[in-house]
Amino acid sequence: MAVSIQSAQSIFSNTEIASAVPATTDAFYKLTVEDQLALLWYAYTEMGISITAAAPGVASMALVEGVLGEIKQMSPAAQSKTMFDLASNADTTIGRIYTSLRVNTKLGFWYELGQLMKQGVVAPIPAGYQMSPEATQVLENIKKLDPGQQITVLRNTVVHMGYDPDFSQEYGKRSAPRSTPTAVAERVKTQIEGISEKTVLSYIDNMNAFDFTPAVGLFAEDGALQPPFQKPIVGREAILNYMREECIGLKMLPERGVSEPAEDGYRQVKVTGKVETPWFGANVGMNIAWRFMLDPQGQIFFVAIDLLASPKELMNLMRK
Ligand code: 45D
């Protein structure tokens, strides 16, 4: 059988992913929008993990100053309605602007609103609001997740807000702005126990330097990258847009891996380690696996990034 994206998806198939994340996210969307907003507020304020001061710096906040200013001027009822509309994907001007933003800017927008709610400048969740028992249960479930999984649930909800007229979340269709890579002199070379594949090491080094053009150059022309809980993004152009949009400020800390021959001259490589987001820095280390399928030329034919079920999975390098 020839190697395909589909066949590559199941390399190292005994990798245990954090399936509690999609399960919790699904349960979240079954709640009423009022409950969703209240739950996010309690989750965000009670989780005990804090956003780093430097974080909004990655968020291109200039793009949302206008909208935030507009919201500040509104009556409390209109402010609540604006949040309700965003969470319920209503077709509004703010909903359309929101959808056009990069993920980090969406997060920055809510971070700012959260601050304004704490200060009482924007309408908070009404004091004494009673969540439904279902919502209380979802909140309890979120609190039991590890921090990396908690922030992934939060991020998912933020990403899906706003109004998208043509479901244009496909990365091939939109071009994200470029950013400045880290100066060569300031870069550090990654070492991964058990891994000597140049492609894998340069992938990590380029990603850590936010140097996405050479990172994408490591992929085969029709190569694919599969983010946690998502479908593969196929082709260099789409992957480049995705990286520009979602990977600024990420810190990849791979620890160890295995590499072995696969069929038709391909090689399969699994690496485990931590990834930090600029939002939480070293406060939250997400447990991650990269499952690479390298083609006979050493290019990345496929890489899946998995959020792992538990820290124990970091040691699971079983050749399967
Ligand atoms: O609605 O190798 C309020 C890839 C109440 C690339 C609120 C990767 C109302 C390739 C509280 C105000 C990217 C795949 C809301 C690797 C309300 C690659 C606010 C992996 C919404 C390794 C809520 C990268 C707020 C990974 C402010 C795994 C919420 C990256 C803020 C993961 C939530 C990054 C924040 C994650 C969440 C970042 C800031 C999970 C950030 C999460």
Description of the molecule:
It contains twelve helices and six strands. The chain is α+β, with helices and mostly antiparallel strands and 320 residues long. Helix content is 41%, strand content 15%. Helix 2 (20-29) crosses helix 9 and helix 3 packs parallel to helix 8 (133-144). Strands 2-1-6-5-4-3 form a six-stranded mixed β-sheet. The longest helix is centred in the middle third of the chain and has 17 residues, at 103-119. It is globular, with a radius of gyration of 20 Å. The two termini are 17 Å apart. The structure holds beta,beta-carotene-4,4'-dione (45D). Beta,beta-carotene-4,4'-dione binds at residues 37, 40-41, 44, 83, 87, 107, 110-111, 113-114, 117, 151-152, 154-155, 158, 207, 227-228, 246-247, 250, 252, 275, 277, 279, 286, 288, 290, 305, 307.
What key phrases describe this protein's structure?
2 domains; Nuclear Transport Factor 2, Chain: A; orange carotenoid protein, domain 2; 6-stranded mixed β-sheet; alpha+beta; binds beta,beta-carotene-4,4'-dione; 41% helix; 320 residues; 12 helices; 6 strands
